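Summary for the funding panel

The consortium committed to producing paired sequence-structure records for every protein in the target list. Below we show the first two records in order, beginning with the earlier of the two.
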Amino acid sequence: MVYGILIHSAENSQKLFLSNFYTPEGNDAQKKARQQAVMRRILDEHFFQIQCASDSSRPPVRSHGHLEEWSPRFQERRHSQQAADITEGIVRFPASPLFRVGKVAVWKQVENIVFIVICDSLENLALANNFLILLINTVFENLKSFGVSGGCLETELMHRPDELLAILHSLLPAGILTFSNLAHAKFSVSQAQELLSQKP
């Protein structure tokens, strides 16, 4: 079962667009401290990946001058520059005062927005990753239908919490991850769009 979902800015941990927890523990008095701890840890990982990508973009040191040495390094450098645009990862949170039982967070950063799914440690991480991809695609498709692009994404997410919750309700009913093949994913997306079209 999914423990919680967080969507926030990749620039800092103060811009939170959506926070939804599915358990009583997630919604207790320590909710804000838990959110901040998760967001800070994910941002640390995000900035670490960006730093590693920028460090590897330095020109390679030439030792023997063989073409074989230059070619793989050039490919790695080009790949690392592309990787800086989208960062992702899996982070473990051990049992602590914030988490009675250890949790795992699967996260992706796309266009300066971080999407996080916090799961129980025994949850199927492939399902969590697939759900996250589906959620990101659905959110961005919904925003594009309103003509939103570029730097306006964060502003639009701040002003559309109901739509985010409707998408989340359709794609993750009661916080339970389900296997999604292409047909089921399209059905879930159509449900989300139907809910959004009913909004006055």
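The next record, for a separate protein in the list, is shown here:
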Amino acid sequence: MEMILILLNKPYLLIKTCARGANYKMVIQEPKTKSSHRTMSIDDKTANVLKSWRTHQRVESLKYGHNTSDKYQYVFTTVRDNKQLYPEHCNKALNLICEKHNFKRIKVHGFRHTHCSLLFEAGLSIQEVQDRLGHGDIKTTMDIYAHVTEKQRDQVADKFAKYINF
């Protein structure tokens, strides 16, 4: 499972890997493959949202006596003890949101698939998407993560007609 280390003084994400260690404790380690060890650029709007969240997190954590000014502070933590959230916590919260709004159930990892599909819909090349996802093998990107979106399906006939000058 990937986790994101966000260094907000630069507009990028540094990818680390989060795994289960002894007694089910989360352990942060280097990614397994060379291609997984990467940084990802993020847009200014996303960086600003994360900075705003960091400010909110600091205010709330200080109420419980936690100093969260370390540059390696986790993004998602429990407020009372400043411990990182387990992926199950995020999935549970997401399940509640899906149930409340009658959405199809999705796990947090599903957003990785969505991100991949939307990158293709935005016109990025296969190599750009592969690099962003950190896949060493293009087959992983194409066979597992890339899905055709409704918008892409709707545009197929028009694109073909335009191509053949119909």
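Regarding this second record: The beta strands are 2-7, 12-20, 26-29, 39-41. Helices lie at 44-62, 87-100, 110-121, 126-133, 138-145, 150-163.
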